[in-house]
User: Which sequence fits this backbone?
């Protein structure tokens, strides 16, 4: 991500002068506040500043396309090789790795930085309440997440969370 | 509407909705996908984890893994629906934020402190749900615990975790 941002800075700020460095920093901060993958939102915001709504569409599609094509190619190969017993073993252990990644990132996201004592209590209630409600009570994840967000917006203030999860 | 067309609309809608749970840079998106397609048995947990793992190796945003989910669900049209689904809320949100940046900032800021806790809960739900869908041996729980500690305390790179997990899978296949 940071290599791409560096490249964008050289191209848009230094070479073409379409943005100032302050604009770029402001857009990067704003991108973290948009309900969308951070880097994708940053690219779309840069695109909007440069070329309006079509600039946003063009930049988001352009930034997604190379990775998406590679993912699809890999998935096609996976389906082709699905009979290979080695693939089953690899997929099983990759699955275990993903479970570890999800749980590890959940802990990292929870711990964050600069959390007050009151926020921890409400945060714990929200972070543990969602899986308990969904898995043990067979409840709706969407309802649990929206309720958590509403409760959190009323009770949790002033934290500077790090936003350390890894999906951009 | 044919069943194929309705599946594509469903994919587009779920992916677009799940994108909203990427607030603050988190990956709540995974939990929505897992809840909607993996838990009901429409998508196998192995393929779900595999698509996510591949997303960690490609250039650009890691969220491109959703194209793999779309492909496994409905082939190339499914992958395209995912691409459109992730782009719509992003483009709308980014355009609104770029246009009315100062006005929207204070409203969005209300949800930012809580979003980390909500997304942590959603990721925990996705991880637990995935674990419940895969039969895990006691020794394998140790591997998962090691990865949790590594990701939490040492900030292990997801690509390295996936690569090492795949390597262990190859070794187990060869010598297990």
Assistant:
């Amino acid at each position: 991500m940071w290599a791409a941002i560096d490249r964008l800075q050289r191209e848009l700020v230094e070479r073409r002068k379409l943005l100032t460095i302050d604009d770029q920093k402001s857009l990067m901060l704003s991108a973290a506040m948009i309900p969308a993958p951070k880097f994708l939102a940053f690219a779309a915001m840069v695109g909007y500043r440069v070329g309006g709504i079509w600039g946003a569409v063009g930049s988001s599609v352009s930034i997604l396309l190379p990775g998406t094509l590679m993912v699809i190619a890999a998935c096609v190969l996976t389906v082709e090789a699905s009979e290979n017993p080695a693939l089953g073993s690899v997929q099983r252990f990759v699955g275990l790795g993903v479970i570890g990644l999800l749980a590890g990132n959940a802990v990292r996201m929870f711990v964050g930085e600069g959390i007050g004592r009151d926020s921890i209590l409400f945060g714990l209630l929200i972070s543990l309440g969602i899986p308990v409600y969904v898995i043990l009570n067979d409840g709706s994840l969407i309802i649990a997440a929206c309720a958590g967000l509403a409760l959190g917006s009323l009770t949790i203030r002033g934290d500077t969370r790090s936003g350390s999860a890894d999906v951009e | 509407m044919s069943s194929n067309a309705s599946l594509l609309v469903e994919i587009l809608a779920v992916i677009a909705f799940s994108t909203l749970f990427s607030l603050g840079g988190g990956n709540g998106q995974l939990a929505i996908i897992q809840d909607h397609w993996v838990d009901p048995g429409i998508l196998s947990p192995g393929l779900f984890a595999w698509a996510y793992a591949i997303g960690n190796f490609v250039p650009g945003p890691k969220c491109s893994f959703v194209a793999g989910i779309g492909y496994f669900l409905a082939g190339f049209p499914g992958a395209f629906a995912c691409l459109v689904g992730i782009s719509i809320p992003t483009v709308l949100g980014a355009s609104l934020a770029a246009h009315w940046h100062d006005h929207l900032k204070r409203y969005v800021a209300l949800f930012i402190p809580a979003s980390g806790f909500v997304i942590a809960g959603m990721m925990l739900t996705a991880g637990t749900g995935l674990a419940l869908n895969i039969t895990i041996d006691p020794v394998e729980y140790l591997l998962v615990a090691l990865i949790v500690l590594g990701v939490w305390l040492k900030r292990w790179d997801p690509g390295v975790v996936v690569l090492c997990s795949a390597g262990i899978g190859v070794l187990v296949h060869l010598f297990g």
